[in-house]
Amino acid sequence: MSSVILKLPHPLPISSRLLTCSAGPCFLLSSTAPTLTTTAPSKPVADVFFHLNLLHFREICGFRIHGQNVPFEAVVLDKSTGEGVIRAKDKMDCELQKEHTFTIQAYDCGEGPDGANMKKSHKATVHIQVNDINEYSPVFKEKTYKATVLEGKKYDSILKVEAVDADCSFQFSQICNYEIVTPDVPFTVDKDGFIKNTEKLNYGKERMYKLTVTAYDCGKNRASEDVLVKISVKPTCKPSWQGFSKRIEYEPGTGSLGLFPSMHLETCDEPITSIRASIELETNHIGKGCDRDTYSEKSLHTLCGASSGTVELLPAPSSSANWTVGLPTDNGHDSDQVFEFNGTQAIKVPEGMVNTNLKEPFTISVWMRHGPGAHEKETILCNSDKREMNRHHYSLYVHNCRLILLLRQDPSEAENYKPAEFHWKLDQACDKEWHHYVLNVEVPSVALFVDGTMFEPFLVTEDYPLHASKIETQLTIGACWQDNSGHDNDTESVSEPTSGGNARMAQFFRGNLAGLMIRSGKLENKKVIDCLYTCKEGLDVQLPEEVAAAVKVEFNPSQSSLTVEGDDIDAFDKVMQHISYLNSRQFPTPGIRHLRISTTVKCFNGESCVAVPDVEGYVMVLQPEEPKISLSGIDHFARSAAEFESQEGVTLFPELRIVSTITREVETDPESEVAEGADDDPTVQETVVSEEIMHNLDTCEVTVVGDELDGEHESLELDMSQLQQRGLVMGSSNLGLVITGVNSMANYEQLLHLIRYKNWHTEALFDRKFKLVCSELNGRYVSNDFKVEVNVIHTANPVEHANNAMMQPNFINPVHHASVDLSGHNLVNAHQASVVPSAATIVIVVCVSFLVFMIILGVFRIRAAHQRTMRDQESGKENEMDWDDSALTITVNPMETYEDQHSSEEEEEEEEEESEDGEEEDDITSAESESSEDEEGAEPEDQQGASRQQQLEWDDSTLTY
């Protein structure tokens, strides 16, 4: 047990002694040390000793310590000398209590054996300090430290780590050093725990650093656990749109698709006062500026509610409208038919399509794409004199980015100035983009609508009415019809005249035109105009109720762009997140639609304080599941000549069926494949499924295969009232007929059932062939070619035909042609059983008759050889066997060559195969064979040379057949 002994100086100098007791023991204290002070080691030392020297006159028997819960005791070591010791009752703990202070008092042994009159000394103060040992290690206050720094900046201090030590002494409880354990990091830490970067950080190089830091106390003890420090690098704050996906896929038929569901605007805590964003959907590369229904312009007018009276001047080429044949087209089906005019082509509109003088109110509508051209006039539509005077009655043309309508008044009106030219200066006329133009003309005013927006003319010039004339006019598209014999200041010369003498074209147009229409008698209203122009695809937004009042949203007419404006950034972000793309077409045009967002941000000073870069992306419209239009029905049948010549005619498509299907690839379930068995091919991953769908058709065309229709004795007819009930239009020519207009497949099917073919001169007609093709979306989806062949059954006397066949072999060729065409036909008439057999049957009758004749001749020879000893009944049986023998002898004719014999056998086999094509034909042949036997049996027998001659004629007919 260690101890600390404190000895007071003894004897003390007189000058420094203080007697603090009388008639008893006294402590001798130094005047400079009024207390007894010592140090006691901390645990594990158990006792602390104070050796006390006492100035006394008697023996010292004990010491008494005064104080509460004093963990010390005083023990006398030498009574005579008064030496004693103070010791600890338990181990000292500096962390619990660093110092102890108490008072101690001595008392002597008293007088006599019983210790009477015991004396006490005065009280002395004892102060004990407990020495510390380095028993504890540093501990960090936090388990993890985190901080965020901005890239490109060097900090004096990023964060502070702090550790503590539980030791009680200053030496062991103080943290003298911190250290970064992780090697090769651009950070350092000082003795106070402050971490800073040693170089500028780069967000692109490292977005987060993880450091391990430890601490040391002044006794060199290391922290029990190192601490993790995470430092995130934040990119330099740049105002921009965050959370934007560059590629957005749109699946057709899924409705509305959100474009920016997670997007928000980062403003870097700038004091924003207003935000304005423009979102543009770029679809100029699709059709005429966006995805629209690709029906013909005339069908679109009907769908949009325009009344009758609309004439289509640029229709797609067909058998009934062929004046646009030869014009270059776009060769695609992303829009209706687009025609290209390169400055050399022009077309003449047939007479009667449009009234010569447009007196009443009328409308001109056209799609046009035109770029900056020459300074010459470029004519879109022109009605001018056919000859001599070259007067322009009305025209629509482009000149120096101006759209001009020329309209000369009727000659019957008063001779005074009238508005004659209307000028509009338009950027759209020269920007090389598609635009929709509608002119509502009601003299003396003209209203122009471009892409649904109305424009007033900036200049109107007047002129006298035209003089009365009997000269016919010519309506042309792409140029003006001119004549060299006359002069007109409005015309320009060209170097290459067209065919037709001195007549020529001038003022050629350079650009693209589509859907050129004239509607007489009524003006188009704004609703119809908007319908004609409106896209089937565009942007849409559903404003949340909580932000509807805080943000303003505006669309352009085609809904290809919109603007969002507001001052609340949170509300602004919510509106942007509700912007969507919508395509209402059943079969949208696949491909890319580019997106662009342009943003302007203003601060308190009213200027653009934050520059937000534009955002670009695109919507990818996936390929739609394309329909397959199938036409089916009876494609081969025969009718009597009387039916063709009747008032009703023959129905061409009595059982026509129109079906449209789409084919989908469906992924198979792997579990079901395993359940079905291991025999299945494991490489098959998808199953093809066909589904029938319903959609519209816009054209069905019936054309003649072979020679054109002869209008003098044949025609294709359809009840016009049935067309009008369904809002469809029919055009016909000597090539066939075309039904146009948007309507359901069921309505088209019903109409096609009603088409009849009439021919009132069938003597030389044996068959007629027709082809039917239907299409949807102006030819984007086309059906199969459904061909129908109709044969004519001619009524004739079979006996006469047989005689003619034998007496006039030259007639066999046309008869044989008819018989071949009839083979395999479906005889669908209910009364066809009563019809006289055809030419093929007649040939068979002739052949069988000749065989019967040869059989009879053979029977006659047999009877002569047997001396006519057999009975009639027996001879009948022998006749049957002899018929077989004779048939065998017929095939070997001594008058035939080997080649003729061989060819006859092959042709007989072909006849047998043809006769087996149908049961009805076999029945007719057998019936006619019986009747022929009866007829031949009644004829007298011929000589052997005559029979051979008939046999040769039969062989010739067989070869011809």
From TrEMBL:
The UniProt regions of compositional bias labelled Polar residues, in chain numbering, are 944-961
Annotated GO biological processes are: homophilic cell adhesion via plasma membrane adhesion molecules; positive regulation of synapse assembly; positive regulation of synaptic transmission
Q: Does the keyword Membrane apply?
A: yes
Keyword annotations of the record:
Calcium, Cell adhesion, Cell membrane, Cell projection, Glycoprotein, Membrane, Postsynaptic cell membrane, Repeat, Signal, Synapse, Transmembrane, Transmembrane helix
Compartments, as annotated in UniProt: Cell projection, Neuron projection; Endoplasmic reticulum membrane; Golgi apparatus membrane; Postsynaptic cell membrane
Q: Which GO terms describe its molecular function?
A: calcium ion binding
Cellular component GO terms, alphabetically? cell surface; endoplasmic reticulum membrane; Golgi membrane; neuron projection; postsynaptic membrane
Ranges of compositional bias, category Acidic residues:
905-942
Which residue ranges traverse the bilayer?
Answer: 839-860
Q: Which PANTHER family match?
A: CALSYNTENIN, CALSYNTENIN-1
The family line of this record is:
Belongs to the calsyntenin family.
Q: Which protein are we looking at?
A: Calsyntenin 1
